[in-house]
Design goal:
Blueprint (H helix, E strand, L loop, with lengths): L1 E5 L7 H10 L4 E7 L18 E3 L5 E3 L3 H12 L6 E8 L6 H4 L1 H11 L4 E6 L7 H17 L9 E6 L8 E5 L4 E2 L6 E4 L5 E4 L6 E3 L5 H6 L2 E6 L10 H14 L3
Parallel strand pairs: 1-2, 1-5, 2-4, 5-6, 6-7, 8-13
Antiparallel strand pairs: 3-4, 7-13, 9-12, 10-11
Length: about 260
């Protein structure tokens, strides 16, 4: 099996190094990752500046672009073959609830999914890389089990996985959950730079608003590996008919 690994923390990040080491035992693995940290870049592609690919001493390839750039370039010519699986991570901190919309980790995995390849976004729940080897071994175990059950190489799917920062024997089995919701982000932070101009920093993420049973937040608090199947379709299917009727009325009122 051939696996493409990327991330959003950059090719030097401890998470991607540990993930690569764990997966080498079960697959042919290649890394194409951003040169620098690209957290919260979501699915962004670089269209107006050139991208360059370089190879690090450890064999990893890195790109002066976004996580999605890395996977896109890899799949459209850099690798020269089609991998069986795309894995993004291991991210330094959780990607749960509304965070998945902004996450570069999820964006890299989603790029693989958009090309019809099964893909997994992996994060540790707490920052700091505590028990990182346990998280990497958990991913390798999940991938091996998926291989054994012929889940890889079939139809594409996209999973968002969050792993608790615990020793391997304390990590609880995977629990499939829906995304929770967060409150609005904290207020923007303003500072004055040495030249007297005001700088703005995006505020911290809001606290969990929906962390009830069945959500990723709830399962994470209980120490489970949290698995959330994702999809790309953003259509509000439940309200299509209502909006169709509303637009028809608006059009008529406009005299058309």
């Amino acid at each position: 099996m051939k696996i493409l690994i990327s991330n959003d923390d950059g090719f030097r990040a401890d998470g991607i190094v540990a993930l690569h080491a764990a997966l080498q035992a079960i697959a042919d693995v290649e890394v194409v990752a951003p040169e620098h940290n690209n957290s919260a870049k979501s699915n962004a592609l670089t269209l107006h500046t050139p991208l360059y690919v370089n190879r690090a001493e450890n064999g990893f390839r890195y790109v002066n672009g976004t996580p999605a750039d890395c996977v896109h370039i890899a799949l459209t010519g850099l690798l020269g073959y089609r991998p069986d699986l795309v894995i993004s991570g291991i991210n330094n901190g959780a990607n749960m609830g509304d965070d998945t919309l902004y996450s570069g980790t999820v964006g890299a995995a989603m790029e693989g999914y958009l090309f019809g390849i099964p893909a997994i976004a992996v994060s540790q729940i707490d920052k700091g890389w505590a028990h990182l080897d346990a998280a990497a071994n958990t991913v390798a175990r999940m991938v091996q089990q998926m291989m054994d059950q012929s889940l890889i190489g079939t139809l594409p799917w996209l999973l968002n996985v969050n792993i608790p920062n615990l020793p391997l024997d304390q990590i609880k089995p995977p629990k499939v959950c829906r995304l929770g919701r967060r409150h609005a982000a904290e207020p923007v932070i303003t500072q004055v730079d040495p030249r007297g101009q005001t700088m703005y920093w995006i505020g911290a993420a809001g606290a969990a608003m929906d962390d009830s049973a069945g959500t990723d937040f709830h399962a994470a608090d209980l120490g489970h590996v949290v698995v959330t199947p994702l999809k790309v379709d953003l259509t509000e299917h439940d309200h299509l008919q209502a909006w169709s009727q509303t637009c028809a009325r608006l059009w008529q009122q406009d005299g058309a």
